[in-house]
Amino acid sequence: MNILLIGSGGREHALAWKLIRSPRCNKLYIAPGNAGTDMCGENIALDVLNFSAVAEFVRAHGVGMVVVGPEEPLVKGISDYLLSQNDLNNLLVIGPGMAGAQLEGSKDFSKEFMQRHKIPTARYRTFQKPQLAEAIDYVQAHKLPVVLKADGLAAGKGVVICFSHQDAVHELKSMLRDEKFGAAGEKVVIEEFLSGIEVSVFALTDGRNYVLLPEAKDYKRIGEGDTGLNTGGMGAVSPVIFADNIFMEKVRTRIIEPTVQGLINENIHYCGFLFFGLIKVNGEPYVIEYNCRMGDPETEVVIPRINNDLIDLFEHAARGTLNNMTIDTDPRHAVTVVAVSGGYPGKYEKGKEISGINADDKHTVVFHAGTTLKEGNIVTSGGRVLAVTSRADKMEDALLLSYAALKSVNYEGINYRKDIGLDVIKLAESLSA
Ligand code: AMP
Ligand code: GLY
Q: Which residues of 146-174 are buried (b: 16+ CB within 10 A; e: fewer)?
């Protein structure tokens, strides 16, 4: 089968790396891809938000399956567009339509959805632009800290946790009145702060059945010890020790199943990944957010732990037959450590030549995120540059492998956290003591 994979990050390199391991993969195209995906297939300079150009490419290259990595094309309706083309009615598309993608595209929609289907989440209220005065009164009476969320997509920056009422009012005004996040902030969700430990849970659904994928924990802050600014993700580990059987059973029955059933009840057909950003509070799971795609860098640890043929899995998802599938999970630990550009998540320079990428691909894989090819050299092209994934029986050993591989990588300004996974190891030690 010829496959078109949409996206250009570490997530897409990990998906591409896995897709080409399927004997069913004929030609893999990645649009637009990066220097890593270029080693797996053919990068295509397509504007992925120009859906008619994507459909033209599908027609011209006999593509049988489109896999959509990032949220933006999904929220903007790429799947609906492709599936509505009369001459593409055999095309398999992995990724929900616009209606399902609202679970990520609108925080207000996702909160209302959770309320309708009694899915545990933080208490909240939504305010619109003309309700600024009311929102200020509400936030001033709210207990601290208080969480403000821009309703729409804001490139991961739309959530602000405020520790004083003054900050909260200031933030509220900049979102609702001053349009800090543009149209994404025309509605703001104000919600209670939940204190606990976060875990990312993933399901692949065909709209009726689902399979649970390995869970992961990501490290969002730039600094060691979870300090400093939020980033797209500085590393991830899988499995996650505190996501034990008892907890995961609660996640299935109280969160995943009501979500899939809720979509069915609302006539929203959903084929693709459901990403549950969860927080465990006193042993109980709550949804912090939904995403309509895989996580990044979580994909770089989740995908290497799946032994199944990914094309098989995707085909069953697209044809509504996931009830015939079970996930064959690699019991080893996978970790990924993300190397970023100097200055990220603030301002950073691009175009730095990268050297010393060498890994055996068996125990350690260097996934590319923000890289590109320039005159035959691999250079940086984004904030997150590489995600170095390793697998081993023990998490400690996987971490040693990734850090050893990173030692030989060099580009001007390289930065990475040295403490990925250490909190989970400590927790494991304290639980077994
Ligand atoms: P999001 O952009 O929705 O992933 O939110 C970013 C981060 O903000 C989450 O990963 C959490 O760490 C934090 N966060 C969001 N909502 C809450 C909440 N209600 N309570 C505590 N932390 C939250
Ligand atoms: N790593 C979190 C995300 O992909 O949203």
A: bbbbbbbbbeeebbbebeeeebbbebbee
- Pure H helices in 222-367: 245-251, 257-265, 299-302, 310-319
Q: How far apart are the first and last CA of the chain?
A: 51
DSSP secondary structure code for residue 65 in this structure: E
Distance (Å) from CA 237 to ligand 2 centroid: 13
Query: What local confidence, expressed as pLDDT, does residue 358 receive?
Result: 87
* Cβ pair 169, 139 in contact under 8 A: yes
**Structural contact between residues 271 and 216, judged by C-beta atoms closer than 8 angstroms:** no
Nearest to 274 by CA among 323, 213, 232, 199: 213
Question: Cβ distance 297 to 236 under 8 Å?
Answer: yes
- Distance in angstroms (rounded) separating the CA atoms of residues 400 and 335: 10
Residues 6+ apart with CB under 8 A from 431: 241
Q: What is the mean pLDDT of each run of 10 residues along the chain (433 residues)?
A: 98 98 98 98 97 98 98 97 96 98 96 98 93 92 94 84 94 88 86 96 98 97 93 96 95 98 98 98 96 98 98 98 96 98 96 92 94 96 98 97 97 98 88 76
Full-model pTM: 0.96
Instruction: Name the residue of 218, 234, 337 whose CB sits within 8 Å of the most ligand 2 atoms, as the mutation to test its pocket.
Output: 218
Instruction: Give the closest residue (by CA) to ligand 2 atom 2.
Output: 295
Residue 233 Cβ < 6 Å to ligand 2: yes
Ligand 2 geometric centre to CA of 294 (Å): 8
Give the integer Cα–Cα distance in Å for 217 and 213: 13
Contact 235, 339 (CB under 8 A): no
Rounded to whole angstroms, the Cα distance separating 106 from 185 reads 10
Which residues in 178-203 are b (16+ Cβ under 10 Å) and which e? eebbeebbbbbbbbeebebeebbbbb
Number of Cβ atoms within 10 Å of the Cβ of 427: 14
User: Exposed/middle/buried for 291, CB within 10 Å: 0-12, 13-18, 19+?
Assistant: buried
Q: How far apart are CA 139 and CA 165, in angstroms?
A: 7
Residue 53's CB is within 10 A of a number of other CB atoms, namely 13
User: Distances from the Cα of 194 to the Cαs of 112, 125, 219, 248, in angstroms?
Assistant: 18, 15, 18, 19
Alpha carbon nearest to ligand 1 atom 6, residue? 159
| Cβ of 295 below 6 Å from ligand 2 | yes
CA distance 299 to 302: 5
